[in-house]
Structures are given as structure tokens and as C-alpha cells.
Amino acid sequence: MSYRTIDLAVALGVLSACGDNGVTVTDAPTSADARRDPPNPDGLGPAPVELGASTDLGAAGSYVLLAKTGITNVTGSVITGGNVGLSPAAASFITGFTLVADPTNVFATSVAVTAPGKVYASDDAVPTPTNLTTAVLAMQAAYTDAAGRTNPNFLNLAGGNIGGMTLVPGLYTWGTGVTIPADVTIAGGANDVWIFQIAQDLDVSTAKLVTLAGGAQARHIFWQVAGQVTIHASAHVEGILLSQTAITLQTTASLHGRALAQSLVAIDDDAITAP
Predict the structure, then answer these.
(1) 147-156 pLDDT, tens per residue?
(2) 135: nearest Cα among 95, 84, 70, 79
């Protein structure tokens, strides 16, 4: 039996099944299944990962791009709906943004970052260094939270090749990398949550799309990736990227979400919009 596409109604009614790759597919969450760790109080799937308020510069949720070692932009990118932050590396490791320092030296602006979004680095004037230290710790805590969720609804689904699938709300766990060589749909309600735990890399092939259906919201989708995230040229992804290593968006790729990396974020003529 093939599970290349998981139908929402079918997935909610199936307790377990063996897919074509021999992996076990467990049931998506229901109101009777309160054992998820922890369950979503407002819809299907696990509870969302906390990122903090977009207005709090000490919160990961204030940043569209947040990294520790560097943020590079080859040309042309547009970041909308939030800030760019780098710490503990200094502003000199934010390249390709043509930064213009504010007279206060608390932040900089860039044509690539749509106002009122700003660019912050660890060597800016106070209170920016403290805010960024707090935000980076919050980013790492969010990663740890997502990685620590237990009782997955879907374990090693399709051996990590999820191209062509429709993904219902739930906690997904892979002991491998995940590839998206064909378009993927994330389908569910406005309050439903998805957490994807990926032990290796996430790779989205050129011009492939991760899209939403049924009211699903990018702010409730969390990609926890122990390895690198690569979104190839002209591909599109929805959700919050929490990478323990690097996040790369190749030429004209796009992201509706946030790129939060514990090393480098590299972009190139990309459109990145906060959810």
C-alpha cells in the first residue's frame, strides 16, 4: 500500500500502517489522544514551539534572520516583517546588505530589510548586545524544545523522501535527512501545529514548493534540523527553520517563515517574509 500522499481523513482514522518503504506510520493526533508531549491545546498536532513576541528584541520571534557566526547576502534579497540579528559575531560578518549605521549605533538599516525592520549585531551600542545574547539563547531553547518532543505521530516517514506528499498536523521524526524532490502540501486548520524533527539535513530541490492548504499557517510549522538546510534555486518553503548548523537559500528561493541558525545564514536574491 502506498502512502506517498497522506490524506487528512485517512490519516486521522488509521492507527498504524506500513508504508512502501517499510516504515511505521502512526496515527495523526485526535481529541482522544492527549499523550503527545505536550499536546496542542487549540487544535491538532503538538503544542507550538515558543519563539516570543515579535516586538521583543530579546526574543527569537523578533527576527526573520538570526544567526551566530555570519549572515551573507549575495545580492537583491528582500527581508520583510521583522529584524535581522547576528551574535556573537560582529557586524562585519553581515555581508552584502550595505548597512547604514543609525546615529545611535544601536542598529543599522539596509535596503534589503524592509522598514521598520532593522539589522542588529553584537558590537552595536547597548542595549543591543544583551538583547541579542538573550535572543540567541531563546533560539537555542526553541531548537532544544522542538528536538525534545516525544511520541511522534510519524516515524521515519517514507525514509525521508517526502516529495509529493500531503502532510497532516503532527509530530514527525526522522533519524535521517529529509529530501523534497517534488512539491509538498502542508494541510490542516489555522490552529494546527507541525513539528518536523530531522536528524541530518533538509534539502528542497530546485523550483519545488512547500505550500499550505486548509488554513494552515506558517507560524505553526517548525523544521528542527540537526544538519544543514538547503533551499535550492527558485524553491519555496513555509515555516520556521531551526537549524543547529547552516541555512542556505540559493538564488531566487523564497521562505515564508524565519531562518534561525546556530551558525550561518546565507541568502542570494531571495524573498523572506515573516509569518
Answers:
(1) 999 999 999 9
(2) 84
